[in-house]
Amino acid sequence: MNIAEDGPEGYRPAQLEDLRGIEWLEQSLFDDTTYQYTILRQLYAVSGKHWLVAELNGKMIGHALVLIGADKTLLASLAVAEDYQNKGIGRRLLGKALEACVDADVSVIELTVRPDNVRARRVFDQAGFTIVDKDDHYFGPDQARLVMECELAAREVSPRTLERRYSDFLSATSALSTHQGSVTV
Ligand SMILES: CC(C)(COP(=O)(O)OP(=O)(O)OC[C@H]1O[C@@H](n2cnc3c(N)ncnc32)[C@H](O)[C@@H]1OP(=O)(O)O)[C@@H](O)C(=O)NCCC(=O)NCCS
Q1: Contact 136/142 with Cβ under 8 angstroms?
Q2: Which of 63, 74, 110, 168 has an alpha carbon within 20 to 30 A of 133's alpha carbon?
Q3: Residue 86 φ/ψ, nearest 5 degrees
Q4: What is the 121 CA–ligand 1 centroid distance (Å)?
Q5: Together in a domain, 45 and 8
Q6: Using an 8 Å Cβ cutoff, are 47 and 67 in contact?
Q7: Domain of 177?
């Protein structure tokens, strides 16, 4: 497969129709901890637009599942189909997922990775993740995972987000002045 010949890959929010392909992708890459369709369907219900897929010529070739909770944001999965690995897609997909987190005002994102997964660790290191913990039994007996975090607060927000924040600010100040104007003393 030659990305240059096939054209540039694209990135977009995951849709319901992607879930069977994501299930297949997960099963082809992870032998111990894979997401079944039922759990993927439930994750889809809560993930919103923060679950991204990479596609090439209409074919889904990777996904990044971000779960934004009240107290914690988790990169629950990052996966690129085997034939397309090691061509920079995982790094770009992760970059897009982190951009979406910044735009959603997430300040820290966490993930876990197997200590021997050198390729994934390289991608995470380069994106700014650092190891904050190690759990030897994270997914059960002898299922060790490194816990990594990435600080996003200092990252640049997109012009679209700046525009949205400015317009939220204007609506808030206009609501405040309307409210003050209605106060009678
Ligand atoms: C991890 C994964 C998402 C990365 O995506 P990718 O598209 O293959 O990664 P990229 O091509 O963007 O980058 C890979 C980097 O790792 C490097 N790399 C590849 N094999 C390596 C190895 N054995 N040791 C060290 N570095 C390695 C590459 O050189 C590249 O770095 P560079 O661009 O600085 O040279 C993908 O390989 C994957 O889906 N793996 C299986 C599932 C998985 O492990 N997911 C992560 C779970 S936490």
Answers
A1: yes
A2: 63
A3: 70, 30
A4: 8
A5: yes
A6: yes
A7: 156-185
Q: Which residues contact ligand 1 via a Cβ below 6 A?
A: 29, 78-80, 85-91, 113, 117-120, 122-123
* Exposure string over 103-137, b if 16+ CB within 10 A, otherwise e: beebeebbbbbbeeeeebbebbeebebeeeeeeee
Rounded CA-CA distance 106/145 in Å is: 23
Residue type, 138: Y
pLDDT in tens, 57-73: 999 999 999 999 999 99
Q: Per residue in 20-56, pLDDT tens?
A: 999 999 999 987 678 999 999 999 999 878 999 999 9
Strand partners, 24: none
Three-state DSSP at 122 gives helix
Q: What are phi and psi of 32, to 5 degrees?
A: -95, -45
Please report, for the domain that includes residue 149, its CATH number. Answer: 3.40.630.30
Total-model pTM = 0.86
Q: Which of 105, 110, 142, 140 is nearest to 124 (CA)?
A: 110
Task: Please write the tens of the pLDDT for every residue from 157-168.
Answer: 777 777 777 777
Q: Are residues 126 and 72 in the same domain?
A: yes
> 170 and 145, same structural domain?
no
